[in-house]
Specification:
Blueprint lengths: L8 H24 L4 H21 L5 H25 L4 H22 L11 H28 L3 H22 L4 H24 L10 H30 L24
Length: 269
Amino acid sequence: MNKLPAITAVFWIMKIAATTLGETGGDLVAQTLNVGYLASSFLFVGLFIVSLIAQLRAKKFHPALFWAVIVTTSTAGTTLSDFMNRTAGLGYAAGAMVLITCLVIVFVVWRLSGQTLKVEQINTVRGELLYWIATLISNTLGTSTGDWLAHDTGIGFQTSTLVITAALLVIVAAHYFTPISGTLLFWLAYVLTRPFGANAGNTLSKTYAEGGLNLGTFGASAVLAAVLVGLVVYQTVVEHKRSAMRLPENQDPPAVDIRAEPRPGFESR
């Protein structure tokens, strides 16, 4: 059974909210609370493993559980990236290249494994595990690329957020107006939402002098958590209604209009 959500507009809004919360939450623990990048990474990787085991053991899609895993990959990705780039001294560009290489290797292994890369069709433990490994690496990569774009190029958090927004809009246009593979466009957008979230999170939390809106990591995290919790509640209600409308196993389904359009989403074609 597929335990991952349908790829809709709500999914993308929640993905951005979760990855942005991962940035501010990771910074809250590692920097504001002064826990440090290494200790914070151990903490968040541990939370990721616990939530991942629960997700893999689940028998159906649970919105709260799914998005908990997304948030833990984002917070772990934030502190892991900062540890690599700052404490270990790799730098943003080198750290990004290492993570891009790791992500490419995961996709090559995924393709060779015979498991589908279409998220809405993943229905095996192996396929789901590959999805979560790719998610963890892409969320770590997003922090590195976001910091590289904001710091090394000198354009700052707000301008870099606008640049990534433009790139995401190009992908959306390609989805609707070109024959490019929906699966390819999905993964491009999926990876890009993380640096978008990283820079958007920094825009919210950093001081005015640093080019931010001065909400601080506490304020930004609280706002983002409230948004995400509200959307999880909404998605849970929708999922319960959808489950209630499903037919009993021995009952014939109603006739389907073959002219009906497929639901919107990057993987609908």
